[in-house]
Specification:
The chain is an all-alpha fold. The chain is built from three helices and no strands.
Length: 76
């Protein structure tokens, strides 16, 4: 895993600055992915709420509250 540091943050900011988002190119990609999903028969969904109960259970299980520094047991 890459640890966050100032050099990595500076690199990412520079990449974002140099490579501006291209709306038209992103729209082309989106439309191609949409057409592919339609071709594969996975979109549009027959029942959009199918499996929602599993998604909700998973979201509840994965929800983690980040403690403030003063609330942590090891805080001094």
């Amino acid at each position: 895993m890459v640890k966050r540091n100032a050099l990595l943050d500076a690199f990412e900011k520079e990449q974002i600055r140099q490579n501006k988002a291209d709306y038209r190119e992103n729209l082309k990609i989106f439309e191609a992915l949409y057409r592919e999903a339609q071709t594969l028969g996975v979109f549009p969904l027959e029942d959009p709420l199918e499996g929602i109960d599993v998604d909700i259970r998973l979201a509840k299980a994965l929800h983690v509250r980040i403690l403030d520094r003063e609330d942590r047991p090891d805080a001094r």
